Amino acid sequence: MGKALTIALDAMGGDAAPEMVVRGANIARERFPEVRFLMFGRKADVSQFLDRKKRLKEVTTLVHTDDVVSSKEKPSIALRSGRNSSMRLAINAVHAGEADCVVSAGNTGALMGMAKFVLKTLPGINRPAIASFFPTMHGESVMLDLGANVSCDAENLVDFAVMGNAFARSVLGLLQPSYGLLNVGSEDTKGHESLQEASNILRGSALPGEFLGFVEGDDIAKGTADVIVTDGFTGNVALKTAEGTAKLINEYMRHTFRSSILASLGYLLARPAMRKLRQRVDPRGYNGAMFLGLNGIAVKSHGGTDALGFANAIGVAVDMHRHGITEKIRSDLALLDRGPGKAQVAAV
Amino acid sequence: MGKALTIALDAMGGDAAPEMVVRGANIARERFPEVRFLMFGRKADVSQFLDRKKRLKEVTTLVHTDDVVSSKEKPSIALRSGRNSSMRLAINAVHAGEADCVVSAGNTGALMGMAKFVLKTLPGINRPAIASFFPTMHGESVMLDLGANVSCDAENLVDFAVMGNAFARSVLGLLQPSYGLLNVGSEDTKGHESLQEASNILRGSALPGEFLGFVEGDDIAKGTADVIVTDGFTGNVALKTAEGTAKLINEYMRHTFRSSILASLGYLLARPAMRKLRQRVDPRGYNGAMFLGLNGIAVKSHGGTDALGFANAIGVAVDMHRHGITEKIRSDLALLDRGPGKAQVAAV
């Protein structure tokens, strides 16, 4: 059993909140006996589910607030009018040192906006990024940014490389992670200028791990690199394209197995193996987008997740805390040589 | 049987050329009895395969040239030093009116560079785009640009929308195709400024079909839109990410069916249905990237394709010609209202 650790939960975030959040926290409690919870939300709504989970209730402090950030709210509006929202109070708890991490299944843009405003970025980082795991031929890799920053310059991409690299070394436990910049070809002259600049900086850096230069879209699933670095626009499209493709093939499969009696019989025989396959590509297993580059740990669960997926998102936060991801990013930034201005900031 | 139609083939392009090209042309000859071929390549190399196909030989004129554009050649170099290459001569044949379309499985960048240089873009189009089919939940859709233009402004995106729309109406036979701009969210304020500008122009245009505004990565496979418009960087990454994801799931499947005796038995029973599934997602069925926006029809086959895939690429060229895609794009451009300068050009 590890050191005690407190997780702030936005009890009202997510399509099936607050029940899903309470049930997810209960699954996480079984997995991580050292975890305590600080839940924020409407007391009456949350209590009806929390009261049924005695052991969870013992390790949970529920703080009442009426305000909730809706999933449709624009981040800029949420930032101004959501000061007493369950989401904001959960983030505040991390800033105040009352919690070690925050997990929410609420509005992504609002969560990122608030987390950035309250927790601030690490010294030397201009913009935080959203990172997540991808299943690959060799296991899993990490990709970032998945949508926090629509436009990125070379410095941003380099920051993301540092953050992703630190994540792979700490949470994934890789000593020398490989990392690459997502591009439309592997030749040096391909792609936007910012990619070429970022590649030059990374090639000359003292970062641990192996810099692979440019990688392409099919390298994500191949597992060519442990860390895939890209701007938030491209990353978001790639993530959703992969999800859409997986769903399409799944649909084709269902159709195939129902297309004849023999095929249905075949499916029956193969069912235990198929179940394992489904587990392997179960999106709940990859639930939890990490916000990297902030003074604190924030994890975004998919809004449509169930309790199991939410528990996995809590697990990601626990992992990040245990492995000291924030400190690792901080110290890695000092290894970059990006000219005097930035380097001084990074060396603080 | 349709009107006679001549296709210029780069006999030396592709990993398995020239044998694959000759065999592919032979499959296409069976499918399209009205087609004649104009092949360019090293006579001795091509003849050894062509001589074995009597009926193909009867409808084929083989023009000798020693020069070949290598798959590794930079487009700019190929453009300068490849004046007598099989690829260039095949494109020249379209420009000279000796052929109606050109098909090559060679170097994509070189093919696009040469096609643009020789055939020129249509009046009103600044940049041609690469388009291809995607399998979806509802059949198939068209996406462009897939890599011809790394950076695109609003005008380019609008051009692509016109081109994709004309393609869907002619080749796909849709009367009112739906089309959307690929973005990271469906709200008006999302994404790059160029996307918002393009959206405004398209919303006010008289183009046939239904403009859906912004669509997201998962909409590609869902089939939300018949035409997905994006810049060449994002499109290329999305295409390759989808391909990589499909391969990954295929690999998982293979593994699953071999994981137990029951699963293997199940696979045996389901095999006929599985074969149909494989055909449905067979990349050869979707082979053939269309170059749109040029004064002439050019189709790029995948470099690693086999004869069947190459025949499909020829089929795409035949379809484009039969449906008068070039004329359709030309007339649609006149329907746009983009301010005086551009509109005049488009109205020529």
UniProtKB/TrEMBL annotation, chains A, B:
Record-given protein name: Phosphate acyltransferase
Family designation: Belongs to the PlsX family.
GO biological process, one term: fatty acid biosynthetic process
Role played: Catalyzes the reversible formation of acyl-phosphate (acyl-PO(4)) from acyl-[acyl-carrier-protein] (acyl-ACP). This enzyme utilizes acyl-ACP as fatty acyl donor, but not acyl-CoA.
Keyword list, A-Z: Acyltransferase, Cytoplasm, Lipid biosynthesis, Lipid metabolism, Phospholipid biosynthesis, Phospholipid metabolism, Transferase
Catalytic activity: a fatty acyl-[ACP] + phosphate = an acyl phosphate + holo-[ACP]
Location(s), subcellular: Cytoplasm
EC number: 2.3.1.274
UniProt GO cellular component terms: cytoplasm
Biochemical pathway: Lipid metabolism; phospholipid metabolism
Molecular function via GO: phosphate:acyl-[acyl carrier protein] acyltransferase activity
Enzyme's top EC category: transferase
Subunit-structure text: Homodimer. Probably interacts with PlsY.
Superkingdom assignment: Bacteria
SUPFAM superfamilies linked: Isocitrate/Isopropylmalate dehydrogenase-like
NCBIfam families per record: plsX
